[in-house]
């Protein structure tokens, strides 16, 4: 079983661990290639591309100038600990033990607009480049055009014949994997909150729940779909009626 999530805009490279030996991302040369175009973009361009404030654009322009393919340890952190958005608050990797971290290293991958595909141990620098932004570079119209074939092929090569892929990524990131070319079943997820007698999707809770599922899989050494169906953290329970062969629905 393999698991994928999106990265996060919020990052902190002060976070680290003694449980992972840092590694170099598989697609670091591709990241370097993308950065060779990105670092020449002005703060104004970045502000418009990413729909961010001038202050944030200046900050990310500076990150682009400082980015390097082989950063020092004080300039980077393992991907599992570098991202700190809501998914990663749910995952809460710093409180996991070694066996859970080992499980994630083997089974868990993080999609990235810049780095492509990251193992938990892969060292990353501070950056911001969302997969869905209309970033044109070289002969590529966008990042999907650049990454889809590479990442689909890589996931395929990492998965054994009968393995399934748990897609806990957002639509923006999940669609970089071409399901028609991936020779494995993909399982999607929905999370609902019961409010005033109605089931509602609340984005921040959905992000948090995605991280909780990753944590649950790591802590319980989940190997099968039935193992994943037992997910019950923070009040969530499987809704068998709403779930299908390709989608698990959890409510609370």
Topology:
Elements (H helix, E strand, L loop, with lengths): L1 E4 L22 H11 L4 H8 L3 H13 L10 E2 H4 L3 H6 L6 H10 E5 L3 E3 L4 E2 L18 H16 L6 E4 L2 H4 L11 E10 L2 E3 L2 H18 L4 H5 L7 E2 L8 E5 L1
Parallel strand pairs: 1-3, 1-6, 6-7, 7-10
Antiparallel strand pairs: 2-5, 3-4, 7-8, 9-10
Helix pairs in contact: 2-3, 6-9
Q: Quick gist of this model?
A:
This protein has 252 residues and is an alpha/beta fold.
Task: Report what the structure shows.
It is a single chain. This protein is an alpha/beta fold. Helices cover 38% and strands 16% of the residues. The protein has 10 helices and 10 strands. The protein has helices at 28-38, 43-50, 54-66, 79-82, 86-91, 98-107, 143-158, 171-174, 203-220, 225-229; strands at 2-5, 77-78, 108-112, 116-118, 123-124, 165-168, 186-195, 198-200, 237-238, 247-251. Strands 1, 3, 4, 6, 7, 8, 9 and 10 form an 8-stranded mixed β-sheet that branches. The chain has a two-stranded antiparallel sheet with strand order 2-5. β6, α8 and β7 form a beta-alpha-beta unit. The chain is globular.
């Amino acid at each position: 079983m393999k698991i994928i999530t999106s990265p996060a805009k919020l990052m902190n490279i002060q976070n680290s661990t003694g449980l992972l030996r840092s590694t170099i991302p598989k697609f670091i040369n591709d990241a370097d290639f993308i950065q060779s175009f990105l670092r020449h973009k002005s703060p104004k361009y970045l502000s418009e591309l990413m729909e961010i404030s001038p202050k944030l654009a200046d900050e990310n322009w500076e990150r682009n100038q400082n980015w390097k393919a082989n950063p020092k340890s004080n300039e980077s952190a393992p991907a599992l600990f570098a991202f700190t958005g809501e998914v990663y608050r749910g995952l809460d990797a710093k409180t996991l033990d070694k066996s859970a971290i080992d499980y994630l290293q083997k089974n868990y991958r993080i999609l990235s607009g810049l780095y492509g595909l990251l193992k938990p141990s892969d060292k990353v620098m501070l950056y911001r480049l969302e997969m869905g932004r209309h970033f044109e570079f070289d002969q590529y119209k966008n990042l999907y055009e650049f990454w889809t074939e590479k990442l689909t092929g890589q996931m395929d090569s990492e998965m054994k014949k009968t393995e399934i892929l748990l897609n806990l990524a957002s639509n923006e990131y999940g669609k970089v994997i071409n399901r028609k070319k991936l020779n494995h079943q993909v399982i999607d997820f929905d999370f609902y909150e019961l409010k005033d007698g109605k089931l509602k999707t609340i984005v921040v809770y959905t992000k948090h729940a995605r991280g909780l599922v990753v944590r649950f899989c790591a802590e319980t050494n989940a190997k099968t779909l039935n193992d994943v169906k037992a997910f019950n953290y923070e009040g969530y329970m499987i809704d068998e009626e709403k779930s299908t062969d390709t989608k698990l629905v959890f409510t609370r």
